Amino acid sequence: MKIEQIYTGCIAHAAYYIESNGEAAIFDPLREVQPYIDKAQKDNAKIKYIFETHFHADFVSGHLDLAKKTGASIVYGPTAQPNFECIVATDYQEFKVGGVTIKAIHTPGHTLESTCYLVTDEEGKDHGIITGDTLFIGDVGRPDLAQKLVEDLTQEVLANHLFDSLRNKIMPLSDDLIVYPNHGAGSACGKNMSKETTDTLGNQKKVNYALRADMTREEFIAELLDGLTPPPAYFPQNVMMNIQGYDSLENVMNKGNIALTPNEFEAVANQSEALILDVRHESEFVLAHIPGSIFIGLHGQFAPWVGALIRDTKQPLLLVTPEGLETETITRLSRVGFDHTLGYLKGGINAWKAAGYETDAITSISPETFAAQYEEAIIVDARKPSEFKAEHVEKAINIPLDYVNEQLAEVPKEENFFLHCAGGYRSVIMSSILKARGYHNMINVEKGMTGIRTTAVPLTAFVCPSTLN
Which domains occur in the chain, in start order? Predict the structure, then answer.
């Protein structure tokens, strides 16, 4: 048996490939499916099944395209009701892939149809369990993502289901099973996932807060729901695409991978409601960009930030990309359901300037310059609340990038203010959004807290009142 984790860091996603005796199975594939087909062909194997652990919210699965290209059967767990042909497995139903047995174990909680797959090798030994978003390394799946799709379904009801699934279906299994989750650190499908992407079930029982043997149902629900932030707006849209179907990736690429001259680019921008998305490095964007464009750099957690900040997956997009990365940009947008790219700027920002079009810039200073000026200034910290509480510049106010649209009224309108994040990526995203909304009074601090820590700027941490004597 061959089992391989195929990890994509941009969306902290893990797909799985299993091959045995000339047959193969793919678990939770990404939108671009050719790498899975190539892998099977290299092994002289036929892809027999495409197993889905649940209807994903944070990415668009490649199940439909992969099934069309290979003839493989799509498998979901009990209660799934997709709008396409598939096998809806019964609880504990077994599937053969060569000499390997795949057993579907219904584990509702993250969603109602959530299902884990127990993998038993050719010798009959239980090897591992592919857990989807039911069990992560160090965490479990959040129970609030499916509640809007089913009437009267609450996060408390799903949390109760998850408690039972973990205790009755997962924890009784062998300690030496390898846990293969669908996500790692950085995914919004859990609260505090480990950077490790596999572990033994036995070790998870020791270190995962949600698997404590002495934990009561009430304690589990309270800890699971504590600190949950609102899910990104694109999550329900991705769920519906995974349930109802979507356009093929080939069509998405054909419609979006169109080189536009500066004149054509401007014409499309004026004639449509397209958003100009600039995916270059932040150091390039601050120097020159198209006025009104939004920066989300391809080198960071690109797709999740696109989904969190642009909100509507049907939003038409025009792209400014590094040369040669046009296809990659459109592909990564498609992973989170943004299928409406209208084209990209041929020749990039240099061609735009050469054609005589106006550019804008962001005032950006070094941490050392910030240290010399910060005392009388307004300081906005764009990091997450948990980062801010752990350590922040004295007098800074926290307006997380995730919620800049909701907290726009808190942004200073008249006075100049310094804006920083952890390393310089998020602050430039936030600066671009603010500039597009008419704010031009921010000064970006390069390198963020990473750079500020090297200066004499005083830092402080939030102290819980209960810890004070």
Answer: 2-237 (3.60.15.10), 247-354 (3.40.250.10), 364-465 (3.40.250.10)
